[in-house]
Design goal:
α2 packs parallel to α3 and α5 packs across α6. By secondary structure, the chain is α/β, with parallel strands linked by helices. It has a five-stranded parallel β-sheet, with helices on both faces. β4, α4 and β5 form a beta-alpha-beta unit. It contains seven helices and five strands, in the order βαβαβαβαβααα. It has two domains: about 100 residues, Response regulator (Rossmann fold, 3-Layer(aba) Sandwich), CATH 3.40.50.2300; about 60 residues, Orthogonal Bundle (Arc Repressor Mutant, subunit A). The model has no long low-confidence stretch (mean pLDDT about 90). The longest helix is centred in the C-terminal third of the chain and has 49 residues. The chain binds magnesium ion (MG). Magnesium ion binds next to loops. Keywords: Phosphoprotein, Two-component regulatory system.
Length: about 190
């Protein structure tokens, strides 16, 4: 799939140069912005795979915009900096930046940096998804444990019997174990509140 990139740069010539280099390399440049405010607006509207962001720009600088874009929209940002802006790099480390490129931008440094940034972003996303899945599994397991405890207490049965009962209910009602467990817990709470 062709990767979609948003380019944010206040100098028209640099903006044009970068756009041509990216297009030549087979990327889809989906939008242009010349300040941080517009960058946030377009990142939200276009949901690009990557944002290339200049630091020094009018209205809102690139670091502030990157903060919003990477943290709020979870879109990776690759910063474009001038050598004199090295003091910004420490600040950039806080803003969830996938990398930075020092100007002047050339095809030889731009394309590999973009490819690595995209790869890194994809890996991060994979980890986040796996973590979310693990969290969910853990949460489900806790719910099942709790429902099992309720059955054990109510019916005065062993853990194994309670678990089998849960599993049978899940099969009979064609609901997941977690759903059955949640129903049992909510029923139990209603009875306690009564
Ligand atoms: Mg600039």
């Amino acid at each position: 799939m062709v990767k979609r990139i948003l380019v944010v740069e206040d100098e028209s010539i640099v903006l044009l140069d970068i756009t041509i280099m990216l297009k030549d390399a087979g990327f889809d440049v989906v939008g242009h912005a010349r300040n941080g405010e517009k960058a946030i607006e377009l990142a939200h509207a276009l949901q690009p795979d990557l944002v290339l962001m200049d630091i020094k720009m009018p209205k809102m600088n690139g670091l502030k915009a990157s903060d919003v874009i990477s943290n709020t929209f979870q879109i990776p940002v690759l910063l474009l900096t001038a050598f004199s802006q090295r003091e910004y790099i420490d600040e950039a480390k806080r803003a969830n930046i996938v990398g930075y490129l020092v100007k002047p931008i050339t095809e030889a440094n731009l394309i590999p940096a973009v490819e690595i940034a995209l790869l890194q972003a994809a890996n991060t996303k994979k980890y986040q998804e796996r973590n979310a899945q693990l969290d969910e599994t853990l949460a489900n397991r806790k719910v099942i444990e709790k429902a099992k405890g309720i059955i054990m207490k109510r019916k005065n049965v062993t853990e194994e019997i309670a678990y089998n009962k849960l599993r049978r209910l899940s099969m009979d009602k064609q609901l997941s174990m977690e759903t059955v467990a949640r129903l049992i817990i909510s029923n139990d709470q209603k009875q306690v509140n009564r």
